[in-house]
What we know:
The chain is of the alpha/beta class. Helices cover 46% and strands 16% of the residues. It has one domain (7-239): Rossmann fold (3-Layer(aba) Sandwich), CATH 3.40.50. It has helices at 16-27, 39-51, 66-79, 103-128, 142-145, 151-171, 196-205, 214-225, and strands at residues 7-11, 31-36, 55-60, 85-88, 133-138, 176-183, 236-239. Helix 1 packs across helix 8 (214-225).
Amino acid sequence: MMLEGRVALVTGGGRxxxxxxxxxxxxxxxxxxVADVDSSSGEGVAAEIERSGGKAxxxxxxxxxxxxxxRAFEIVHDTVGPLDVLxxxxxxxxxxxLVKMTSEQWSRVIDVNLTGVFHCxxxxxxxxxxxxxxxxxxxxxxxxxxxxxxxxxAAAKAGVIAMTKTWxxxxxxxxxxxxxxxxxxxxTEILRDMPEKVVTMVKDRTPLGRLGSPADIAEACAxxxxxxxxxxxxAVLSVDGGLVL
Length: 245
């Protein structure tokens, strides 16, 4: 098992990519902390892992609250053990074209998808100081190439990539590896409101001919978190079925 005995915290762990990542990490031997602002979904994932023979606990976490983030990381240290892996996955969408996007739409997405990643990355860096570890930030191909109606989301995800490269430079001497994954279109709840014709168009443009699954991203996270990627830091791994080619 790639992650035997390691303590891993997954933000946004109650659904979608976060849920899949928590389950794969537990399968690979990690003690998983499922962190989510939604207690019901987060507790459900932790219970699912426990029923399957894995080790997990739930921690309620609002990534936009810096003080709450720090407390949550301290709880993890005291009750589960020293943190080895952080997956910064929590994120939201609130789309609108530039001329119609409100300040509230802009700020909310930036607060969760960018500032929340900063808060958790900072707490993880402090927890991993002198010990080493792995931070994996979930960005998006939208952060690399933009997307219609997603000024806020694209800006946040591009910022995540920039922070990833900066943290890799800053934390490498402490043995902390920092990488990002840029998913393509993944079959999660976020796509449910997307028009069917758009989904079909994306599939047709993807060389592999399908949408990605949350498990596709989870497996990439597990590899980056493991010793098999011990010389990989500052990388942005596109997991998109070839969509951006």
